[in-house]
């Protein structure tokens, strides 16, 4: 731990405007990075990656036949009802799965990441919204569409509206947060319903097996799955992909057999007129059945959110060539069986399996349900990691399990919280229909939010022709809106579960965002510029004490207010002080000669240093090694870049000698530890939100990596920011 040096607080009122300013980088040395990004994959590598996606991305989607029909409140269904239901499922899979996600959404990546929060990040990067943290605003989008952006005259009216309206930007942020929280809720419900539905198949041949035993077995399977997550997505997917390959092959074969045996003309239901006849006959009852039908597209959001774990081509190949045909044939086979056996819908999957292959299919389905859980677990890790990087979620431990894929991550804290919640859902809400009702709420709302954000991307970034945007929005917003209206009626019957989870997560995200924004406002308002630093050092009684000091700051255009607080109270500054900033870059590794960027700040003995690192870089540089790297870089810089302070060779040597003397006198690393001072003049909203932020901040990980700094050299300077 850092030794704690708390100084008497300097309290200055914080700025009140609700804006999140961004600023140019500091120090001003060039920060271009030529680190090598992963090369384009060859065809064979893409095919292998597509095979791996079966074990991670599509588990939730391809195993949906386990619980779709059992989740429908069917009473006395007729042949025409089943034909209408199959037609609805076919067109849902085709329009939402193929057109929306595979052909459109996968192109809207943000630095290779997918999901609702990645869409929000993409909009922030390409618009002057001002709600994205400055360190992220600096990076460029990976979309080629961004090249279409021009001057203010070429901006769309909608984009200008968002850039000028703080209310619109807040609403957009809330929508993105809600979508993110709903997807995390999906990561809790998918494992619960998938494994529970698969394990329930054991009760058909053994009626004496109790429901409680099935729930306990399901919980045990999930615990094992979560314990495997620490090995990384690649290892898990390579192990799970053969299981999903077997499932994806077996279920459509059983479906084809069922079609031939029971109803060979099932594919006449592909005509949309069966949908209209279905709603015409059933009215409100048909509308309520959509709450179960929507589950056929379960896991489609994971297809988009897991993009960072793989790539666009591999996901498209796997979905179009294997997953989509498998689902169409499996649902056709199930429906064909139910047309001839209309009362078996409560166990619509296992009843349509031929007796001779029941146990092999049961084993495959159970294993496939475990894999289905993996897809949403991986997606949850991805969206949490995005939120942490963008500073919208408290700092947690994020482990990169691959040196080649930036999006392949694992978080121990998130993993074990998910495990506890999944087991709790199974043990408390053991009825598959209640979990299905909750599941439907999550699926429909996440799809609806993705449609809204994609529409904004089309209008403001891609500059898609208005008539195409209108067609896209009308089809998908109408379709998903009808689904959402049906599932919202299920809130009292288990649908409240995802709302409770999402509300808690959204409150955490907003509380953290609000506190970080207030802190940034304060620091940008009261930052120390070089002129102010010079005045502080020239005050009577201020001494330059021997030693080398690394003063950590995250201000990008100036120096942290903690510096002024430190100098006023300690009445000193080290003879050589290096203001150090850590910068995370969206590349695997930063080249050794570009990792440390240094420059002079115009005052004697005062320098700036930016340490750049990629997601696969290790920052544990060990204390002496880190100090030597920085001082060596500074010495090279001083020798090659003389300025007015060191105009000749002799002065350059004196400056280098001063460096060596400072190192010998002792090295110290100083960082700030700030808290809000919540005075009586604070309103109730600020008081409650900042108190909640302080609670989160005191219980999360430090944003500053350890860097291997010896304990004896660490100092924390406490300071209060007045709210």
Automatic annotation (TrEMBL):
Its main location: membrane. It is found in: Cell membrane; Membrane. Keywords: Ion transport, Membrane, Potassium, Potassium transport, Transmembrane, Transmembrane helix, Transport. It is a multi-pass membrane protein. The chain crosses the membrane at residues 6-26, 47-70, 82-99, 167-189, 209-228, 240-260, 286-305, 317-337, 357-377, 414-432, 438-462, 469-489, 495-514. Potassium transporter. This is Potassium transporter. It holds the Pfam family K_trans. It comes from the Eukaryota. Coiled coil: none annotated. Belongs to the HAK/KUP transporter (TC 2.A.72.3) family. Residues 546-721 form the K+ potassium transporter C-terminal domain. Residues 50-532 form the K+ potassium transporter integral membrane domain. Signal peptide: none annotated.
């Amino acid at each position: 731990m850092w030794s704690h040096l708390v100084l008497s607080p300097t309290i200055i009122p914080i700025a009140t405007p609700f804006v999140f300013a961004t600023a140019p980088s500091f120090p001003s040395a060039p920060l271009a990075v030529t680190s090598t990004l992963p090369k384009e994959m060859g065809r064979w590598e893409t095919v292998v990656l597509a095979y791996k996606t079966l074990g991670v991305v599509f588990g939730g989607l391809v195993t949906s036949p386990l619980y779709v029909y059992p989740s429908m409140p069917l009473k006395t269904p007729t042949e025409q009802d089943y034909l209408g239901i199959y037609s609805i499922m076919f067109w849902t899979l085709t329009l939402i799965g193929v057109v929306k996600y595979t052909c459109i959404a996968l192109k809207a990546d943000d630095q290779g990441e997918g999901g609702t929060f990645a869409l929000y990040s993409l909009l922030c990067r390409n618009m002057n919204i001002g709600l994205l943290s400055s360190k992220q605003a600096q990076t460029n989008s990976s979309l080629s569409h961004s090249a279409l952006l021009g001057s203010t005259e070429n901006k769309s009216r909608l984009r200008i509206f968002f850039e000028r309206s703080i209310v619109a930007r807040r609403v957009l942020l809330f929508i993105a947060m809600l979508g993110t929280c709903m997807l995390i809720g999906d990561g809790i419900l998918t494992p619960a319903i998938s494994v529970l539905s698969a394990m329930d198949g054991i009760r058909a041949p053994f009626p004496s097996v109790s429901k409680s035993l099935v729930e306990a077995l399901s919980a045990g399977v999930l615990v094992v799955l979560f314990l495997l997550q620490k090995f990384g997505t690649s290892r898990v997917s390579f192990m799970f992909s053969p299981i999903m390959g077997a499932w994806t092959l077996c279920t459509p074969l059983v479906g084809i057999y069922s079609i031939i045996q029971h109803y060979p003309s099932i594919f006449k239901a592909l005509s949309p007129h069966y949908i209209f006849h279905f709603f015409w006959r059933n009215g409100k009852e048909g509308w309520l059945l959509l709450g179960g039908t929507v589950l056929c597209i379960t896991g489609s959001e994971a297809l988009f959110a897991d993009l960072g774990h793989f790539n666009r081509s591999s996901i498209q190949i796997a979905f179009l060539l294997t997953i989509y045909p498998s689902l169409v044939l499996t649902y056709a086979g199930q429906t064909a069986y139910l047309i001839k056996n209309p009362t078996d819908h409560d166990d619509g999957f296992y009843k349509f399996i031929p007796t001779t292959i029941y146990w092999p299919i049961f084993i495959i389905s159970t294993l496939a349900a475990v894999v289905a859980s993996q897809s949403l677990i991986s997606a949850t890790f991805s969206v949490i990691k995005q939120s942490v990087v963008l500073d919208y979620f408290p700092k947690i431990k994020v482990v990169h399990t691959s040196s080649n894929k930036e999006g392949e991550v694992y978080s121990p804290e998130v993993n074990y919280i998910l495990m506890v919640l999944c087991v709790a859902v199974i043990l408390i809400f053991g009825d598959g229909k209640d979990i299905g009702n909750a599941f439907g709420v999550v699926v429909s709302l996440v799809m609806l939010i993705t449609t809204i954000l994609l529409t904004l991307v089309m209008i403001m970034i891609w500059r898609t022709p208005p008539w195409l945007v209108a067609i896209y929005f009308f089809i998908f917003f109408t379709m998903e809106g009808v689904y959402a209206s049906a599932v919202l009626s299920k809130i009292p019957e288990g649908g409240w579960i995802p709302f409770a989870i999402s509300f808690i997560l959204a409150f955490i995200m907003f509380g953290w965002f609000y506190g970080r924004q207030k802190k940034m406002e304060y620091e940008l308002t009261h930052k120390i510029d070089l002129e102010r630093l010079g005045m502080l050092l020239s005050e009577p009684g201020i001494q330059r004490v021997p030693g080398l000091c690394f003063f950590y700051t995250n201000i990008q255009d100036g120096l942290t207010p903690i510096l002024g607080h430190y100098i006023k109270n300690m009445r000193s500054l080290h003879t050589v002080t290096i203001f150090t900033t850590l910068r995370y870059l969206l590349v695997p590794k930063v080249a050794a000669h570009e990792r440390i960027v240094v420059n002079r700040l115009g005052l004697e003995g005062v320098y700036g240093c930016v340490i750049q690192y990629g997601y696969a870089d290790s920052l544990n540089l060990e204390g002496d090694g880190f100090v030597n790297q920085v001082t060596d870089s500074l010495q090279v810089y001083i020798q090659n870049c003389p300025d007015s302070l060191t105009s000749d060779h002799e002065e350059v040597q004196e400056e280098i000698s001063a460096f060596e003397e400072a190192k010998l006198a002792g090295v110290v690393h100083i960082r700030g530890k700030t808290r809000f001072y919540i005075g009586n003049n604070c309103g109730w909203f600020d008081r409650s939100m900042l108190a909640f932020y302080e609670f989160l901040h005191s219980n999360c990980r430090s944003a500053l990596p350890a860097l291997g700094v010896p304990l004896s050299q660490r100092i924390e300077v406490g300071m209060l920011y007045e709210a």
